[in-house]
Amino acid sequence: MGSSNAENRGSSEASDGRQIRLRALDGYELGGLLYDARRPRSPRRVAVLHGGAGIPAFRYRRFARFLAEWGIPVLTYDYRGIGMSRPDQLRAFQATTADWVEYDSAAAIAWMRERYPEDELIGISHSIGALALGAAPNAAEQDRLVLIAPHTAYYGDYRLLYRLPMAVMWHALMPVLTRSLGYFPARRLGLGDDLPGGIALEWAERRSADLRPSGAGIGNDRIRRLINYGSALQRPALAITISDDAFATVAGAKRLLSYFPRLASEHVVLTPGEANVRRLGHFGFFKREAGLAFWPRLLALLDAYPQQSPQPS
C-alpha cells in the first residue's frame, strides 16, 4: 500500500541513511531511514525517532547521523501520508492520529526491537510525536525515552504572543483549506509537509485542554484506549523544552507528561544562549548549530543515568 513516489522523494535528500520499508500493524507500507552505527559502543544502544506532525524523516538526518557516528543505530520513519509514506494521491487519503500511534509508531518500535533484541532501545520523539512514542501498544519495548519539545497541540499552552495567530492558523484556516482540498497544503504555506485530511481536522477541531476526546465513536474510543496505554507506562524519561519554542512551552510539556504519570521523568529547559545562537524555536534542537552544544550533552545524560528497569505494578 505504499508509493513509488515516496522512494524517489526520499532518495535525493536521505543523506547517508539507508532506505527501508516496513509494514504498519494494519498492513500499510511505511518508508524509513536506518542510520547504521559507525563504531562499536558500550553499552549497546539503538534508537527509534518518532517525528513531529508534518515533518519528514529526512529532516532529522543530521541528528540521526550524529548518534550513528557515536555508535547508536537510529531508525527514522514517516507516518502514513507523510514523506516516504505518502500515497500517490493525498486528497481524501484516510489517516487518523490513532493510526499513527497504534499502527505506525508501533511498527517502527517492533521493527527495531526485532533487529536489535539485546540492545537498549531508546525511544526519541519530537513535538506531538511524544504521543506516538508513549501511547503505542508496545511502547514498553523502549527501554528509556527522550521527549524533545513535547506538547499536546492545545492552543492555551502556546506562548502568549503567538497564541492568537497560531490559533487562527490551526483552528480557522486549517479546517477551511482541508475541507476544500481534501488535505492540508502545508508545503505551500511553508509549514512542513502536507497533512492528510483526517489528521489536520483532528488537530483543528480540538479545543479542550484534555487530550482525550469527548463523545462516543470508534475514533474517540481508540484515542482514549491508547492514552490509557501511556498512563501505565513505566520508564526513565528525559523531557527537553526549548525556551523560545512558541508551540511546545514548559506548560505544554507538563501537560503532555501528565498523561504519562508513571514515567520517572526529568525535565530540562534549553536556551538559545547555551547554543550561542539568537533563536532556536520548535525545530531548533535538530539544527546543526544547536547540535554542537546539545547533542553531546544528551549523550552525556544518557551515560550518566544508566537504564533502570521499572518496578512491576
Short description:
The chain is 36% helix and 17% strand. It is built from nine helices and ten strands.
List the helices and strands and how they pair.
Blueprint lengths: L3 H8 L6 E6 L5 E7 L9 E6 L10 H9 L4 E4 L19 H19 L4 E7 L2 H7 L8 E5 L11 H22 L1 E2 L10 E2 H9 L12 H14 L4 E7 L7 H8 L6 E7 L17 H17 L9
Parallel strand pairs: 3-4, 3-5, 5-6, 6-9, 9-10
Antiparallel strand pairs: 1-2, 2-4, 7-8
Shape call: globular
Which range does the strand content fall in? 15-25%
Computed Rg: 18 Å
Helix content: 25-40%
Written description of the protein model:
The structure is a single chain. By secondary structure, the chain is of the alpha/beta class. The protein is 36% helix and 17% strand. The chain has one domain: Rossmann fold (3-Layer(aba) Sandwich). The chain has nine helices and ten strands. The strands form two sheets. An eight-stranded mixed β-sheet has the order 1-2-4-3-5-6-9-10, with helices on both faces. It has a two-stranded antiparallel ribbon with strand order 7-8. It is globular and about 50 Å long. The chain starts with a helix and ends in a 9-residue tail after the last helix.
Which descriptors apply to this entry?
9 helices, disordered C terminus, 313 residues, two-stranded antiparallel ribbon, eight-stranded mixed β-sheet, alpha/beta, 10 strands, Rossmann fold, disordered N terminus, single chain, globular
